[in-house]
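Protocol step 4 of 6: record predicted structures for both targets in the notebook before any analysis. Target 1:
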Amino acid sequence: MTRPTYIAKATWALAGLCLLGLAACKQDPAPNAAPDARTLELPVVQVLARPVDRLYSTPGSVTSEERIEVSSRATGYIQRIGVNEGDVISAGDILVEIDPTEVEGAIRRAEAALSSAKTSLENAETDHARLAGLQERGAVSLEALRQTTVARDLARAGLAEAQAVLDTALAGQKYTTLLSPIDGIVVARRKQVGDLASPGIPILTIESRERLLFRTSVSESQIANVQVGAAARIEIDALAEIDIPGEVLRVIPSGDPVTRRYDVDLALPAGLGAFPGMFGRAHFVIGSDIVVLVPNLALATRGGLTGVFVVGDDRIARFRWVHGGRVFGASTEIRAGLEGGETILARDDGRVRDGDLIVTAGAGPGQ
């Protein structure tokens, strides 16, 4: 036998062995035997359908009920601003000091005008008294006396006007030092040292942290269900609290013509630790629904699916996939997959498999 013929026969033999191996691989392996059912002692609970509040939820933000734009009633250059954005302030703290030169000049001018008015009145009263005496003796006419009377009355009016101007100037003096009217926080600084302060032009914006509100907006289809004084629940993400009690403080009866939504303010409890601008949600009760609730501990995960173990009359545990919904404290709403009256394991300890026999360790009330 030549060498090429031998190699060819060896190759065909090897190919045959490979084909036999592939054929053997195509055969299904023998299935694994199902694990033997076990007997476990676990508590069960009967599922009941119960009424729960139907909620209408809307997003919103924490806001301050007191937001004040600090401005001066006096005109002058800003000498000092004692606070910055984010500073916490108390009522009576000095916020801004304004150059008092112009105000002091106005006071001096008003004082000079008042002094002149007093002198004019003194002269007018002296002239009137002198002519009144002469007129009694018939030395002057009634017309001359009348003219001095008019001059005296005009001098009195001039004195009153000068006094009013001085009072106004003195009142403007206190506006050169601006004090905080509330306990709060500085949220905006709109002017800098050296800028001109003018009446009505804001220098600072401050907000109270003592009187906080939660502002949200309600659609026109639900506005009839939101009444002033009604209770609501508020959830603020930054505080990780989902059951902050609130009360509808006011409903703004003028809606946005584009969004068809109405602003609603809710009162927040004191000492909450929230800051204006924090995001959250308001939950309004607009009715009730009958829903199936299960204990949170009863929910199990098997093969990436969430469900519960239903225990039938034969005491066999069978895993059933469920569609969960809202969470109510220690219970979860089941929207599909379970009906009221069925019995389930009260908790999943990770050992339970489909087909296990359950020996009741204790039955709790329906959840």
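Target 2:
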Amino acid sequence: MKKKVLAVLLSAAMVLSLAACGGAKETATAAVDAAQDTVADAASDVADAAEEAAEVVEDAAEAVEDFGTGEIKIWVADAVVDFTNDQVGKFMETNPQYAGYTVTVEPVGEGDAAGNMITDVQGGADIYAFAQDQIARLVTAGALEEVAPENVDAVKSQNDAGAVGAATVGSTLYAYPLTSDNGYFLYYDKSVVSDPSTLEGILADCEAAGKSFYMEINSGWYQTAFFFATGCDLSYETDDQGNFTKANVTYASDNGLVAFKKMIELNESKAFQNGSAIGEATNCAAIVDGTWDSGAAQDLFGDNYACAKLPTFKGADGKDYQMSGFGGFKLLGVKPQDDELKLMVCDALAAYLSSEEVQLARYNEVGWGPSNLNAQQSDAVKADVALSALAEQLAFTIPQGQYPGDYWALATSLGDSVRSGEYKSSSSDDDLMKALQDFQDTCISYAQ
């Protein structure tokens, strides 16, 4: 605009100079009039632009005022703090109406977030990542707000069914899925294990090579691989407040006996070692573990690194069973807010942090497996051998729902009884069935 005005004035000056040197008076007068008109127009344009700029500033101020001001605290695992900060920055840049809020990202892992929230809901994070098995406790404690109604359909249609189920209590969606990568499968050394498809074959190869096969059978998470394989049920129903209302347990059954016997048989193999952390394994040729240990597995096995779904096993009844187990998920929750405007902003931010775009970026940054269906189909995710093995295994697993805290200690005790030799292949069916009945009755009592 300044250049336009300057040019007009220079032109007028030249015309006047010519007129002074004998040019036509009429020409000079017309040029001056034209210059004055142009200056007036330019001044008007400047005024209009200033008015428009003022309106933009006013609109922005009103938008910020409309959504309020405040502080938002986010808890995520230490490994994704920097990533989350970057994503929050992008969100705020594209949503200037939320400029009245200051967002702080703090390192609190998914395993600790629920306990911290339940202890002090008021002092806890406004948005936080947590493992799906904690959702019932969080709902009961009043630490989770329902997913905003306008986001429910998108969450349900864009994420896999297991993740959506894990984010649901009763009939209510309480969280935004982040990942579908918290399950277990088989890592193995392909120079030792020739065929990872059967448990018997894996153990035979490990025994022949003097190598070890690792699985944590005294864990309520891993031992379900046997019981769910034979068709046993171990699940709990909850109401919308997260209270346990019913236990569905069928371990004390013919199917349960087949599973229990196979777990005992595995324990008696000379190749077997109890454990699930490859970083702590020695002389290992195969291990049941998760994606979080993929780097350690690659380091251990080197060029012989390989992954597969869990194997089948042959039961005492002569039938073949595909090992199953739990599938797990990371979820993003929003804390209830007294300030409805702040709640609206928290929901918008949580929806963004769990979106297809951010899930895929998170995979590329730290390797977390997405729950978003489109992100799962990206070339990068499909080329990841560990995630591919997990994806294949998840087709045979049961999404981990809500379980009482006492269940995990009870399952450890059952596994420890096998590890100590209290139950062995020579034990009678009656003794084994009694152990399963005691286990089942205790599980049921947790929901009474």
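Step 5 preliminary note on target 2. The chain is about 50% helix and 15% strand. Residues 61 and 176 are 30 Å apart (CA to CA).
Proceed to step 6 after PI sign-off.
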